[in-house]
């Protein structure tokens, strides 16, 4: 069975407070984009989970989020057989795009279908937060408000169609490191998530873009100033707005004009400040995972 694991960007990311257990309560506007990893999942007679991948530096053992997600369901339902998973990664790793979380979500969809477990997407979402805070959203997809640690989700009116330019500098960022460095009581400026919600309600891309903000930039950008350079480059080349996604270091720029987006993409490639440069669109089909 072949499945696509789609990447996300955070159109807005606010941190409300730090909890006793170290996790942070957030208010985020999530958006799925048309950039994806591909999973080929099949049943094998012998028990166990065997993972192969095109990237030599990511784990193929129980540290892979695909392994964790599949094992969670296979243990609960006492599945006797095993699975093989071939994971073709195209989403940048440790980039703030939820690549691993989305692979985990796809693995849960796959195991549920292959073994006929009969769980609804909602039931998978409830279990998936154990694998990672972003996994429930990766199961839901589309435009959504995420609260709690990211697992309390409300589907929102879809983000207006637009072009999304991705630029990832050649550095990797650990989500844990960024949250640990953030002082939640000292956030200078909180993004106006409610204004963004209005923008979505009115289907107004400019209104949404105007209020984009990510409090984690205050940790990641001082560590990697190249992020600011990429943002500025996108804005100078016609982006309606540009911002860091999640804990970074990936920057995305939103464009309402295809020609401008293509020119900005070419110009960013030429600078070589970003290693991965990719032009895509927002994904709003929702519904069925394929
Ligand atoms: C920042 C965000 C924004 O969408 O995404 P990424 O940059 O990772 O893509 C998420 O909040 C990341 O979610 P996710 O990557 O699933 O987090 P987890 O694996 O559950 O947690 C990794 C570490 O981040 C911290 N963490 C995570 C989520 C949260 N709400 N508060 C936290 O403090 C915890 O220290 C945890 O040990
Ligand atoms: N399926 C997976 N794909 C990518 N990384 C994974 C996966 N499973 C576990 N990891 C580990 O998780 C770390 C962060 O993964 P990733 O999901 O790409 O980060 P982010 O959520 O910031 O985009 C990596 O450094 C990698 O070692």
TrEMBL record:
Active site: 8, 134
GO MF term list: 4-(cytidine 5'-diphospho)-2-C-methyl-D-erythritol kinase activity; ATP binding
Catalytic activity, EC: 2.7.1.148
Superkingdom as given in the UniProt entry: Bacteria
Pathway noted in the entry: Isoprenoid biosynthesis; isopentenyl diphosphate biosynthesis via DXP pathway; isopentenyl diphosphate from 1-deoxy-D-xylulose 5-phosphate: step 3/6
Record domain GHMP kinase N-terminal: where: 64-142
GO term, biological process aspect, one: terpenoid biosynthetic process
Domain annotation GHMP kinase C-terminal: ranges: 196-271
EC category name: transferase
Gene3D superfamilies in the cross-refs: 3.30.230.10, GHMP kinase, C-terminal domain (3.30.70.890)
Residues engaged in binding ATP: 92-102
Function: Catalyzes the phosphorylation of the position 2 hydroxy group of 4-diphosphocytidyl-2C-methyl-D-erythritol.
Family, per entry: Belongs to the GHMP kinase family. IspE subfamily.
Protein name as catalogued: 4-diphosphocytidyl-2-C-methyl-D-erythritol kinase
Species of origin: Blautia pseudococcoides
């Amino acid at each position: 069975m072949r499945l696509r694991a789609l990447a996300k960007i955070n159109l807005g990311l606010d941190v409300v407070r730090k909890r006793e257990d170290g996790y942070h309560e957030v208010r985020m506007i999530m958006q799925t984009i048309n950039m994806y990893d591909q999973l080929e999942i099949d049943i094998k007679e012998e028990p166990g989970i065997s993972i192969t991948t095109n990237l030599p530096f990511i784990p193929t053992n129980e540290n892979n989020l695909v392994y964790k997600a599949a094992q969670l369901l296979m243990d609960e339902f006492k599945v006797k057989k095993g699975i093989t998973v071939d994971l073709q990664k195209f989403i940048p790793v440790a980039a703030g795009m939820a690549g691993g979380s989305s692979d985990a979500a796809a693995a849960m969809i796959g195991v549920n279908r292959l073994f006929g477990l009969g769980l609804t997407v909602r039931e998978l979402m409830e279990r998936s937060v154990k694998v990672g805070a972003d996994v429930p959203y990766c199961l839901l997809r589309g435009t959504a408000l995420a609260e709690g640690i990211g697992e309390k989700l409300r589907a929102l009116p879809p983000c207006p169609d637009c072009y999304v330019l991705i630029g990832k500098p050649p550095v990797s960022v650990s989500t844990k490191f960024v949250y640990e460095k953030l002082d939640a009581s000292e956030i200078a400026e909180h993004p106006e998530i409610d204004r963004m919600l209005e923008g979505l309600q009115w289907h107004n891309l400019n209104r949404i873009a105007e209020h984009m903000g990510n409090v984690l930039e205050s940790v990641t950008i001082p560590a990697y100033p190249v992020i600011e350079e990429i943002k500025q480059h996108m804005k100078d080349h016609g982006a309606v707005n540009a911002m860091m996604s999640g804990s970074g270091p990936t920057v995305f720029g939103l464009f309402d004009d295809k020609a401008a987006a293509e020119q900005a993409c070419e110009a960013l490639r030429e600078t070589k400040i970003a290693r991965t440069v990719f032009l895509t669109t927002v994904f709003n089909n929702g519904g069925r995972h394929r």
